[in-house]
Design goal:
single chain; about 300 residues; alpha/beta; Rossmann fold; 2 domains; eight-stranded mixed sheet; 12 helices; 8 strands; globular
Length: about 300
């Protein structure tokens, strides 16, 4: 019995359709499984915070990293500048949270600024600072984990031109007072914000957390050397650099800290400067807690 060519063609087509559907279903399941695996290895913010050591967690009640990063809109995959990352308190949270598609650029003070501190900024210290952009990146590698963001470093006077217009956000967390402190030497804070403006994408965000001085305090006291700055100082600096003010939050506010002339921010925990051997004063400072901090959000115009 002969089978017509039409029947053969029809059977072949049905077979191919079935095979194609089965292949797609099988590989679709694989893709879903791979996607599921990707999701399970992604580090969300809560997990990044939970992974920190107990010493870091002890400061969450004052630093409020979850609420702060959420307020500034920091998300996985972003390219973020962190000013004065130091020993990596925030970097250790950001690197795993930003994930393998993200990037963290740690930025230190302009090298020319360090000698103004005097004392500890000796020749040996300065030689170490000259290597910081290399040594800090090396130090940060273990903080990334298996799926963390890539990392690089610069100073505010050596920002690479290839990042211009590429960053999503910049974080200045308790990093502004010393740059303001030496404003009689050079415009370090203004220059840092100008460099940040250049590096950000249109619409990019700047998040600032800074020890807050009351507006009725003397300008000479609130110029940075005591750790505190006025909101008006930050607002003017950001306006001059070209940023738009988005808003502020009381996330990091502490009304118990009513610092005035004669007070330095380091009198409070964790430094407890001048109080470690005075139990009565120490108890008083611990009762205040860490400093009153303003949390300000700015945007580079689109």
């Amino acid at each position: 019995m002969k089978i017509s060519s039409l029947v053969i063609t029809t059977l072949t087509t049905v077979s191919l359709m079935f095979a194609t559907t089965a292949f797609a279903a099988h590989h679709g399941d694989e893709a879903k499984a791979e996607h599921k695996n990707d999701v399970t290895v992604m580090i969300d913010l809560a997990s990044a915070l939970e992974a920190q050591d107990d010493k870091a967690k002890a400061r969450y009640q004052y630093r409020n990293p979850k609420q702060t990063l959420e307020y500034f809109g920091i998300e996985p995959g972003m390219k973020v500048l962190e000013a004065l990352p130091g020993g990596g308190w925030y970097s250790k949270i950001l690197l795993p949270y930003l994930g393998e598609n993200g990037h963290l650029l740690g930025v230190d003070y302009a090298i020319e600024m360090w000698p103004h501190f005097g004392g500890f900024a000796n020749e040996k210290f300065m030689e170490k600072k000259k290597r910081w952009t290399t040594t800090w990146v090396e130090e940060a590698q273990p903080w990334r984990g298996e799926t963390g963001a890539s990392v690089s470093a610069a100073t505010f006077s050596t920002m690479p031109s290839d990042i211009d217009g590429t960053l999503d956000a910049a974080l200045f967390i308790r990093a502004s007072h010393n740059m303001a402190r030496f404003s009689d030497k050079a415009n370090y804070l203004g220059d840092a914000m100008s460099a940040t403006y250049k590096a950000l994408k249109p619409g990019g965000i700047v998040g600032i957390v800074q020890h807050k001085a009351r507006e009725d305090r003397p300008d000479s006291w609130a110029a940075g050397s005591n750790g505190y700055l006025k909101k008006s100082t930050i607002m003017q600096t950001m306006k001059t650099a070209g940023f738009e003010f988005v808003g502020e939050s009381d996330i990091n506010a502490n009304p118990k800290d009513q610092a005035g002339e004669g007070d330095i921010v380091w009198r409070l925990p964790p430094s407890l400067s001048g109080a470690k051997d005075n139990e009565e004063l120490k108890a008083k400072m611990l009762a205040i807690g860490e400093s009153n901090r303003m949390t300000l959000k700015f945007r580079k115009p689109s």
